[in-house]
Each structure stands twice: as C-alpha cells, then as structure tokens.
Amino acid sequence: MSEHDKGYQQPPPPPPGAPVTQAMRVEDLSEIYTFNKYRLHVLEGPDKGKEVIAERRVITIGSAHDGDLVLDDATVSRRHCRIVFDGGSYILEDFGSKNGTYLESYRIKAAFLRPGVRIGLGSTTILFDLIVGEQVNVYLSRGDRFGELYGRSLEMKEVFGVLQRVAPTDATVLITGESGTGKELAARAVHDHSPRANKPFLVFDCSAVPRELIESELFGHVKGAFTGAVQSRPGAFVAANGGTLFLDELGELPLDLQPKLLRVLETREVKPLGSNDTTHIDVRIVAATNRPLEQMVQDGNFRQDLYYRLAVIQVPLPPLRHRPEDIPFLVDLFLRKQGKEGPGYVVSHETMEKLKNYPWPGNVRELKNYVERAMILSTGREIDASLLPTGPGGLLASQKPTATSEHVIDLDVPFKFAKEQLVDRFERDYLMAALQEDGWNITQAAQRIGIHRKSLEYLMKKHNIRKP
User: 419 in helix, strand or coil?
Assistant: First the structure.
C-alpha cells in the first residue's frame, strides 16, 4: 500500500518515548494497514459449525482458552497456529504443533492463504473466506518503543499503535498477556502519555493484598470500621484521584467484591468501609491480568458486566516466543542499559539463533535476567547461550541431559502449556542422549530407540537439534 493510498504524507518521527501532544497527531505517529475481515468456519471436528469473524491483524487458533478460535479438539495443540496479515497478504503460520498444520492436503510451516481454502488441524477442518466489503484499519506505530516497552516486530508496533491512540483519552484499558510481557510498563506508559501524567499513578496488585484487607485497601475505611482500624484510610481510589489507578492481576479479585468495584466504576463514587458517606473521584482505570477472563466469565468466576466495563479497550501483549525477531534488538538494548560494562560484549550468530529459538516462558523479564546473568558469568566478552535456564522450556543446556535433571514448577504457566513444555523437553533430552551415544549417526540412533530414520529427522528439526 503506497503512501498516497494511505491518505497522508510521512512526517518526521518524534523523539523516542516523546509524549503525544495536540500538535502531534496520533495518526502522524502510525502507518495504517487496511485489510478485509475474514471468516473462519469449522467444517469438521468436535466444534463443527463454530465460526469466528476475524477483525484483528493476528488471529490465534488452538485449544488454549485465550485464543481467538478455541477448539475443543484433543488433537489440536494449545497454541496450534495463527493467521497474520502482513500488509499485503494473509499468512498461515504453524506454532510447532504436535500434529501439524495443513493447507488443503499439504503440511506447512508457513503459507499464503487465498479465499476458500481449507485448513487442517488434527481432526478439525476450517474454511478460510474473506468478507467482501468489510474492512478494518490497523495502526502500526512508526517507532520502536512506547514508554519502556520496546520492539520492532509488527506485533509490538501494533500494540504501540493502539496505546498511542488510547493514551490521550480517558478510556478504560484492559491489558492482557502472560507474566513478564510488560503489562505494568504498558499501563505506566499510557499514564505518562496522557493529560494525567503529572498526577498520581498508583498500582494496586489484587494478588498481593490479603483477602480480608482488599476491600479496605481498595475503597478505604473509617476509624473503628473493624478490629484494628485505629485510624481512617482513604483507599487506592481516593489516593489515585486525578490520576491513574492500575489494577494488576485483576483475575484474582474475589467474586464478592466485584459488584462493589463495578458500582465505583459506574458512579465514580467511593463509599469507605464502615461509612455512609461517599466521595466523588476522578480516576482513570487501567487493569491487567494473565488469566483468561472470558473463560472465567463462562465458568462463573468473573462477572460479565464488570468484564465488559473494564474491557472498553483491550490490549493483548504478545509473548516473546511469538516475536523472535525482537530478540536481537532487546539483547542489544539490555547490554547497552548495563552502563559502562555493556558495550563491547559480543553475541555470535549461533548464540543469537539459540536465543531466538528458545521459548522464553518468562518472556521479556526472563530475557533481561538472562542478559544480566550472562554478562556476569561469561568468562570473556562473548555472551554464552549455555547459561540459558534448564527448567521447563530450557532446551539449550550444553551438558548431556540425564533422566534425573531437576524440574522447576512455574505456576504462572497454565497446566496444559507446562505439560507441553515438559513433554517437549523430554523429547529433546531423550533424542540428544541417543544421538550423542551413537556419535550423531542418525540411522543407528533411530534403530536404537525404535523409530524410523525419517521420524528422527523430523523430531530433530522440530526441536532444532543439530550436530555440534
């Protein structure tokens, strides 16, 4: 799409991290991608008849509850595949699924889609078709950062584009994403780029406050409201008055407190615990969660009316494994942020490829910790990939794997995904042991473990196993 077609001329880019001002139109900070909506219709499988209208640039498909098209099919991986609009075409990409992704009858890693084609996932068949005349505009930021969020991938530029457009408003924002993707950084950036930037930014972590104290900490209390209330406290809403209140880990808010939160959001009035008086507040709400709220609504664990009240603007932050092209940029950024010690460190092409292939279950937070640890523990000025963790997802350890290697439990990772990670790790460790035992003779190793040579070659490719 040409600049003429987009209807504007490209202005000079703003300084990195500069706030949006009235003189700097949000449209001038973004490129516009226009694409047709499309329909995904399940033709065969347990979800036959299910249909999704895609209105976003990236649509994920799998059995995970936080996907866009959720399939109740045991042969479909948790995160099986996705469809991406790259500015000119629709691309189907496999996520390294166990049973593969098929376009018509051909197994693919990535392929262009045309209207009317059939997508195969396990025992499910999906029809892809464009909806003529219905288009969606996607705004992609021209910059590679928004506040302290960084990235050059289309996924992050789309996130920046949404945040740039919503920040100057008072709209309520719900930020979703896995642990370590930067939800608090996104919330703080929204506040810093808003007219409330000089007012308070208050973080209230719903998972960090004891259950019996959440109501008084959030809404306030008066002296004598309960045992131990020796003085009145204003609560988070009043403390953030005029500014932004960031409700982190929203999915942990007890069900019986959700109606009171909903009432405050609708009336903009707070009644402290033990008082009959109300206080008017002027607070912008930004909330975040790593839990699937839509599924919690269906299960009766989260109020539907509160969900819709909070999700006025929903911003999903992509996990790092979905944007590996950002890893070289982030590694360089973290090295430079270490001050005088950062410059001069070298990351070889082989090491960088390993970093890009690592699944990063802890996302950007884990990558940053790895870079800091590698700078300290590397013997020279070269970053060492062998320092990657060897817990779930830690597939790149240099030592010979053994059956007694310790398994670290991370309860921030959903059960099904953690199980997939553990199975993947077992497969890789088992295959590595067999190949090392037979001197990397693929035929002998396949015979030893009782599988066909072609199957072993496929598994080696799947797990990025190469002869040293």
Answer: helix
